[in-house]
Task: inverse folding
């Protein structure tokens, strides 16, 4: 995740993520059936980039976890750049100015989004978990390892 509202801008790693779902979204379908139609007629609508969900084991001393909590309480437009790196490499993205660049030695998905959910879950005989929701506001871009 990119902390691009401050100076200097930094790439912040979200540690202890257990899983991520929902990145990619779907396209709306417009019904254009009319009285002359012999079958249902449809047209493709706008792409909705969706919303991602992820669970992580809370570490209150982790900079990424602190940033998530801060972003969840902001009332202004707090969109951030996100990069989800695949396990075919370990290189992080780089940040130049406000531009997050994916590494060429790792497959990954990048997008912009804002934190829409930050929920702590407490249970007996368990670590504290956080459920996070990210509303994706740009089409995810996949980069393939070179």
Result:
């Amino acid at each position: 995740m990119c902390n691009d509202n401050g100076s200097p801008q930094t790439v912040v790693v979200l540690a202890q993520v257990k899983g991520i779902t929902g990145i990619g979204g779907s396209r709306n379908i417009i019904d254009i059936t009319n009285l002359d139609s012999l079958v249902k007629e449809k047209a493709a609508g706008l792409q909705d980039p969706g919303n991602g969900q992820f669970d992580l084991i809370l570490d209150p001393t982790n900079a990424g976890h602190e940033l998530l909590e801060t972003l969840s309480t902001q009332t202004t437009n707090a969109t951030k750049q996100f990069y989800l790196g695949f396990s075919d490499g370990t290189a992080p993205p780089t940040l130049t100015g406000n531009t997050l660049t994916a590494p060429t030695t790792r497959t990954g998905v990048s997008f912009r989004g804002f934190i829409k959910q930050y929920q702590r879950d407490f249970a007996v005989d368990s670590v504290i978990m956080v459920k996070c929701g990210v509303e994706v506001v740009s089409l995810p871009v996949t980069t393939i390892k070179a």
Observations:
- The radius of gyration is 19 Å.
- The chain has one domain: 2-18+50-143.
